Amino acid sequence: MPLSRSLSMTSLSGVLPSWEDDELPVEDLLLFEVAWEVTNKVGGIYTVIQTKAKITADEWGENYYMIGPYFEQNFQTQVEACEPPNPTIRKLTDNLGDKPNVICHFHEWQAGPGLILSRSRKIPMATVFTTHATLLGRYLCAGNTDFYNNLGRFNIDKEAGERQIYHRYCLERAAVHCAHVFTTVSEITAVEASHMLHRRPDVVTPNGLNVKKFSAMHEFQNLHSTSKARIQEFVRGHFYGHLDFNLEKTLFFFIAGRYEFSNKGADIFLESLSRLNYMLRVRNDVTVVVFFIMPAETNNFNVESLKGQAVRKQLWDTAHTVKEKFGKKLYDALLKGTIPDMNSILDRDDFTIMKRAIYATQRHSLPPVTTHNMLKDSTDPILSNIRRIGLFNARSDRVKIIFHPEFLSSTSPLLPMDYEDFVRGCHLGVFPSYYEPWGYTPGECTVMGIPSVTTNLSGFGCFMEEHVSDPAAYGIYVMDRRFRSADDSCNQLTQFMFSFCQQSRRQRIIQRNRTERLSDLLDWRYLGRFYIHARHLALSRAFPEKFKMDPIAPLKTEGFCYPRPYSVPPSPSASVHSTPHHSDAEDDDDESYDEDEEAEKDRLNIKSPFMLGAIMCSSKLTHFHHHYLLYIMYCCCNVSLKLLTPSPLSKAFKKCENNN
Length: 660
Fold this sequence. Notes:
Keywords: Allosteric enzyme, Glycogen biosynthesis, Glycosyltransferase, Transferase. There is one protein chain. The chain is elongated. Strand 12 (428-430), helix 16 (440-447) and strand 13 (452-455) form a beta-alpha-beta unit. The chain is of the alpha/beta class. It has 24 helices and 14 strands.
């Protein structure tokens, strides 16, 4: 039976590992979660706390509490007031005694003092500390340091002191070493923490999303089309007078996030856009409009951007007025049984109105590259690099740039769209980050069915490479920024974008279906179990007499990998044309494609996690299993094995080969 892809955990149902062994007796426990971002939206950690809250509350019920800073506005809009029965955790544990036991989870260095004091005062509770990014790592990368190639060479104390963050760094490091369990959000951040904080994380807890919030079933393709039409309307206004490119052959790319020019990869992105512009001018008729959604210091919208939307609206009103008059005269003529004279159906006033509208679209300057007046126009990194590469939205440019230096809002007079609707309307999100402990932006693209570019220096990119055997086939393009030079990374990103531009409309639809299918991997109903594992581990270390756990048992997710799509990936290589200009007829070919059928075959191809540790720890292996493991070693290592019992082993090899 065809499966529904968009409801959380459906397309991976029965395949994602079940962790019943880690279920905790929550009725005998209390869970506290402490973070500066509780109801306080200042970064990605707020998204972690906010999206994870529902599944945690569903599991823990009334035994789950969150602690954060008091801000009156946030308090009034996001929480319900209640009086705590005890003013501090110490008094609570004194009153509780041995039951129920308490788990306290602290996020980031701001919550560190609470953890340190709790341990120093010997409060009987299990503690977990999560760093979402090391404090010093952020500062070093913001200074354009060759961070990952010098992880083992930094004088940590000296670097923290020079940046005047030594006190905060000491808090962070002390909290890390005081916690029963130390976690971080990705493997790449685990490597960083090992060097910066001198403790290897016990558990990696990837960041998830509330996928049900974004779930649109099979409507997500229609939502893409609807939102794309709204973006096209904005583009018509922004490029009035220079709208000499076909909007039906125009792709929308975007980058969004904090304005960290190098950390977020905006420098690499701009250089790659310059190279893409050259390639499209030479070989293709596709136009790419690129949005930079990064908040910066401005004083208002610029006049030219507002004028463009006013001109567009005026033209729409004029066309609507003429259409109404034309339609009424045509209707009257047809009722009389005559074909109207097309030369007389519009009078002189109509032509005058249309000529005035056309004259209003005349423009003697290029469309602006930014929608706002920048306070630091001359030194702004994005604008400075746009000047360097010369992408000024000229008619000859196939890559157009729009820098929107504020968060999107449906109440904006310029681009009235919420971020979620805007993402749905784009074709590709590009996030070539150098420093990105996790990366929610490509994750949000994935659950909305929008392909994206990420890197192997982001937690999201590493996670996808680990869990998806061929990420590019699912619309997740992972750049190599760890083992390549900056120039090679630019070339790779340019090639990713150019190949995407070569895809037909039908190929992009197929790819969006596959991208959206990966949303199950990012659901908290799956990723929340890493937190369950961390809590269980903390309890086993804080109360070893009551909670037992094998400290060296491998996680049940090790070896899990989503397969390549059942059918051939939607690559443009199979449909490259001998001439740069080609017909759209290819979009209407008769090649059969059943998205639900492919999804079902993908699900059947998924195998259970392969855990070498679990196999090797077993004390009872059958004779054939022993030989089969040696056979695997033989095949993988391609070496000759000198064996004491060649006859049975050779028979086992032969049997394996015959079966394969």
